[in-house]
Structure formats: C-alpha cells, structure tokens
Amino acid sequence: MHKVTSEIYTETNNISEKLDNGNAVTKFAFKCPSYMIDPTSTGGTFKYDDDDDLDVDRDKEETLVIEHSESTELNLVGLQVWRGALLLADYVLSHPDLFKDQIILELGSGVGVTGIVASYLAKKVICTDINVGGILSLIERNFQRNRAYVRSSYNVEEVNFLDLGWSRRLEERLQEANIVLAADVIYDDKITDGFVRTLSKLLYMKKKKTVYVALEKRYVFTIADLDTTAPMYEEFLRCVEKYRMNWSVDYISIDFPRYFKYDRVQHLVLMKIQNNTKSIAYA
User: Fold this and answer.
1) What is the rounded CA–CA span in Å between residue 220 and residue 228?
2) Could you give the number of structural domains in the chain?
3) Where would one find coiled-coil regions in this protein (predicted)?
4) What range defines the domain where residue 202 resides?
C-alpha cells in the first residue's frame, strides 16, 4: 500500500535515533514559556506584562523525546508527528489560564505530543486512540520518556471513532473532561464522519465541554471540479453541519507564540467548538 510521510521530518533539524523496532526517537526542541522557567510560577502564578498580557518570554530551550514512525500507510498515520499536533501544543502553552487544572480529553492522540504538553498544566489528561499498530503502548512509552513535564495524572484509553458503544467505565471517564483536544484526525471520509459523531456524543453529555480541533487543509486538484480543493476539510465541515444541533464553531487566529519548530503554514486551522444548548444526555 501507498505510504505517507509527515512534512515535519524534512522541515526541521530535530535529532533522531533509529530503534530496533523500526521506529525513530526524535528530540523535538521547544522554547519554554516563562511560567515553565520560573519556579515561582509553575505552582500556578503566571506573570503578566504592563499591558496585562501574559508574559511569554521564551529564552530557555527544552526537548520532548518522542518515539514515532517515520513513514506509514494511511490507516496508521497516527504513529507519526504532524503539524497540527504542534500547533495545538503551541496554543496550550500560549494560554495556560485556559488549561490549568482542567480535565483534558484528547481524541486521536497519536504519539501523545499534545497530551504530554497539556499534562504540564492540566489536573488530568485522558489520551485516546484506536489501538492499531501498538499506538496505545507507544503513547504510554512517550509519557514515560517525558515524565519531567508530566505534572498531572493521566490515562491512556482506546476510543474508536467507528464504535460509539462505550463501556460504562469508559463513558464515565470521558464524562469527567471539560476540555477536548484533537489534532490531525481528518484524513478519511469514514473516519471524519466517525470523529464528528464522537464529538456529538461528547458535546451532549451532562458535563459541558469545550473542543479545540487543529487540522491542516490539504489541497488537491480534482478533475471532477477542475479546481484545487481541500476535500477532507470540506468533508469535516459537511459532517459538522450534519450532526450538530446548536454548536458554535469559532476559528481561532493562529498568530499566538510559536514554541515548537515547524513551518506554521497558512493552511493550518484551529477551531473552538461548543454546544450552546442546555446539556442533555446523549441518545
């Protein structure tokens, strides 16, 4: 089958090491926001400048050590690192007030980059993905590799977008979350439909949730349209329109500080989704 490779591996100078299992371990460098540097602010006191804006001074560089695949078939792209995960990680680091002491659920966690970053601020992180290619154990290994940054409790659970028949235990665990993160989970019509149905189930749980979705519009030229389109992004919007009842979908400007090294291309998108109806049990 045709294999795909993330652009991240060619646009950065991150240091990688090959493992015997065929994966690579890469050091992803990032600049620390001031609250990660100053020990007086890691306890919860964030610094602000004279204009009352969050102080995001970034002088100290650290690294996340991430095990991942360098090339995969389409159904295993979660084993790679993609730009959307780094964009969403940047957003979390840029807005600590939004994520501090929250219970965060990540859908389609992949190798765990965003979840690990969120765990520095959160009260609890629940990382989820479909268990193919050993991805759940890979997430666990990456949390262990980066335990210096993991300040919250965390769980790794299987959530399959195509199977919403959750066990009572899993549903109770997902119910806890008040923030949902998802990065680069839009790559296939069937998966996209299942992802939006999963969001719908989560957004109509009793506990109100705010969803942040990062994705990259990937353009292709189609003979049918005689035009360049972003089919998966458009399919995502169609599915949102199909399944939502009273959601608000807001586009967040991506001009917030960049901590990780990657090409923040104009086709990257960050959305904030909420359910504006009174919370009800999902049928």
Assistant:
1) 5
2) 1
3) none
4) 75-275
Residue in this structure with the two tokens 């939004």, named with its chain if needed: 98
Give, for 279, the enclosing helix (H) or strand (E): none
Domain harbouring 122, CATH code: 3.40.50.150
Domain-located, residue 34: no
29 within some domain: no
State if pTM tops 0.85.
Answer: yes
Question: Is 114 among the domain residues?
Answer: yes
DSSP secondary structure letter of residue 112: S
Using CA atoms, how far apart are residues 57 and 34, in angstroms rounded to an integer? 5
Written as one letter, the residue type at 49 is D
Q: Give the residue from 36, 210, 48, 21 showing the smallest Cα distance to 134.
A: 21
- Three-point CA angle 200, 219, 130, nearest 5°: 40
d(CA 105, CA 232): 23
Burial 74-91 (b: 16+ CB within 10 A, else e): eebbbbbbbbbbbbbbbb
Each residue's pLDDT, cut to its tens digit, for the chain (283 residues) gives: 678 999 998 887 788 999 999 999 999 999 999 898 764 444 444 555 555 555 555 468 999 999 999 999 988 999 999 999 999 999 999 999 999 999 999 999 999 999 999 999 999 999 999 999 999 999 999 999 999 999 999 999 999 999 999 999 999 999 999 999 999 999 889 999 999 999 999 999 999 999 999 999 986 645 455 456 678 899 999 999 988 778 999 999 999 999 999 999 999 999 999 998 754 443 3
How many other CB atoms are there within 10 angstroms of residue 172's CB atom? 10
Instruction: Write the CB contacts of 169 (distance below 8 Å, at least 6 apart in sequence).
Output: none
Q: How many CB atoms lie within 10 A of CB 153?
A: 12
Estimate to the nearest angstrom the gap between the alpha carbon of 6 and the chain centroid.
Answer: 15
Tokens of 278: 């009174």
